[in-house]
Amino acid sequence: GQSYEIRMLDNRKLGELPEINGKLVKSIFRVVFHDRRLQYTEHQQLEGWRWNRPGDRILDIDIPMSVGIIDPRANPTQLNTVEFLKLTCPQVHCISTEFTLRKHGGEKGVPFRVQIDTFRENESGEYTEHLHSASCQIKVFKPKGADRKQKTDREKMEKRTPHEKEKYQPSYETTILTEVS
């Protein structure tokens, strides 16, 4: 139920794609599994989640927190996908430990991948022309669990040598999504 702010910035170079200036683009936002092992069983994992939480969705749009969003849609059969024109604040309604083997996964939990695919309108008014895809890895925990995880991760990192610390990415307030080819 925690909302995450996502901002889409237009970072085109001057003169690039002038045909979309002043036009809407459609973005499809998905939460998928990051682990390849779970990607192979994603359909079964999502069906199991649906069975345990009837009527719930994995991903929603926080409409009151969203700015400039038009035509938000959530397909009832795709619990992990929403689409909209422009951009919004999504809400992830599952936690990473719901997909671990043990019911009480503790600080473990499966990593998810947030992916945003953006499309422009074609001549017949359908948003089918792919413009861009970007993603990043996330783990979702309940607030107290997230605080505990951050604390233990910080403590573990403090114990590492400077050489070991070089192997890890630094922590940031915001995450830049990586372009997907």
Automatic annotation (TrEMBL):
A GO-annotated cellular component: nucleus
Report the residue ranges that make up the Grh/CP2 DB domain in this protein.
1-181
Q: Where is the composition biased (Polar residues)?
A: 171-181
* Chain ranges passing through the membrane: none
Q: Please give one Pfam family short name.
A: CP2
Q: Tell me, what is one Gene Ontology molecular-function annotation carried by this entry?
A: RNA polymerase II cis-regulatory region sequence-specific DNA binding
InterPro entries per UniProt: CP2, TF_CP2-like
Q: Does the keyword Ribosomal protein apply?
A: no
Q: Which UniProt keywords apply?
A: DNA-binding, Nucleus
**Looking at the record, which segments are called Disordered?**
142-181
Query: What are the subcellular locations of this protein?
Result: Nucleus
Q: Which PROSITE patterns match?
A: GRH_CP2_DB (PS51968)
Q: Where is the composition biased (Basic and acidic residues)?
A: 144-168
Asked whether the UniProt record includes DNA-binding among its keywords, one would answer: yes
What is the protein name given in its UniProt record?
TFCP2 factor
Native organism is Phainopepla nitens (Phainopepla)
Q: What is the lineage of its organism?
A: Eukaryota, Metazoa, Chordata, Craniata, Vertebrata
* Gene transcribed to yield this protein: Tfcp2_0
